[in-house]
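Appendix C reproduces, verbatim, an entry submitted by the partner laboratory led by Prof. M.T., so that reviewers can inspect both the input and the predicted structure.
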Amino acid sequence: MLWPKSLNKKIKTKVKLAGLTSLKVGGLARFFLEAKNIKELQEALIFTKRAGLPVFILGAGSNILVSDSGLDGLVIKLGGKFFKRIHREGSCLEAGGALKLSQFILYAKNNGLSGLEFLAGLPGTLGGALAGNAGAWGESIGEQVKEVTALDYSGKSRLLRAKELKFSYRKSNLNKYVIISSKIKLRKGSKDVIGLSMREYLLQRNRIQNNSLPNAGCIFKNSGKNTAGKLIDACGLKGSSRGGAVISKIHANFILNKGHASSKDILSLMDLMQKRVREEFKINLEPEIKIWR
């Protein structure tokens, strides 16, 4: 493929994706770009739109399952300081979409800003957290967002204010955009109290999700008052395995890569979990992770 001259030397081919995901699973990306600024990102989006080439935006790779056969498109990872910047404006924090969520929360704590302690311990980037409306313990990040700066997949810049943003359980209307930065409204608080709250959330998370093997976090969304983990556990599926993948014995909504698992192995377990829960409880589990094929 003949890329624009400005991108030609920056586009890589046949890049292994498994090492860029928390599940450590997946084939090759046909094309790969680490965009260092908005100009590079815009040029890539404009070109791929015209060429009809699929685009995949890769954050920290913590909530995706990549096909064993790889991706016949362009995978873009936001890199460089521009996409990872953060600064304070009163009780608001403005940060880049590629900033790690853990770094964002720590910066808030160090600046005496409270409101997102419940996200302590969650992996991923701020952009990914916003697109999927990340949350825990009955709270979610979307409730705090003032505005988002983004590009659509045609390369057009958009400033989305709170009234234009739609957040619901583990989803938002931001999936059709590439998130450049966001402004999040927090409240002033004691650094010590915020730090203590974060540690308590971390302890709770470690008690129920202490998995050291590669994983993508919760595989399925909760169904109303029924947590997916409890439904799967009630079907007696903890410890069930396919190839190199196994359902966690600690948290039934986690699938672990116990060594050389394939996406086929993981999809097989997902099918099993959905089938058994549907048969037992007449509930259709919806995947929380993104499946890239």
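Residues 191-209 form the longest helix (19 residues). Additional entries are available on request from the coordinating office.
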